[in-house]
Amino acid sequence: MTQIRRIGVLSAVKISTCIYAVLGLVIGLFFSLFGVLAGIAGMASEQGAVAGAPGLLFGVMGIFFMPILYGVIGAITGALTAVIYNVAAGIIGGLEIELETPTPVQDPFGSA
Fold first, then answer.
1. Separation between Cα atoms, residue 79 and residue 109, nearest integer Å
2. How many Å apart are CA 21 and CA 73, to the nearest integer?
């Protein structure tokens, strides 16, 4: 068994920021879709553009702000998680994983 004794904080921040930003983009797309649909429905109502404009505005802005917001949240949680893991691993030991070295595949044609 191999033990993960420490996680690089910057490495965890980079990975979690990327993952959370992509998640924020997906959520932002749904947020945008529903916002635009609500804006269109609002414009079709008796109040017209006054009711529909906020829905359209929030819908379009969701695509831009959600990935940024989620990326920042991902960076913070990634750093905290790595620091907490490193402290806990120092006290009680790290995660144990089993690694296997792949055996080289022999060339059936015998070329070097």
1. 50
2. 9
Query: Residue 61 to residues 49, 50, 51, 75: CA-CA distances in angstroms?
Result: 18, 18, 17, 21
For residue 98, the number of C-alpha atoms closer than 13 Å in the C-beta half-sphere is 0
63-87 tens-digit pLDDT: 889 999 999 999 999 999 999 999 9
**Amino acid type, 80:** L
Domain ranges of the chain: 2-94
Q: How far is CA 76 from CA 62, 80, 85, 90, in A?
A: 21, 6, 14, 21
Helix, strand, or coil (residue 59): helix
pLDDT tens-digit readout, 21-71: 999 999 998 888 887 777 777 666 666 666 666 767 777 788 889 999 999
Q: What is the pTM of this model?
A: 0.73
Q: CB of 63 within 8 A of CB of 84?
A: no
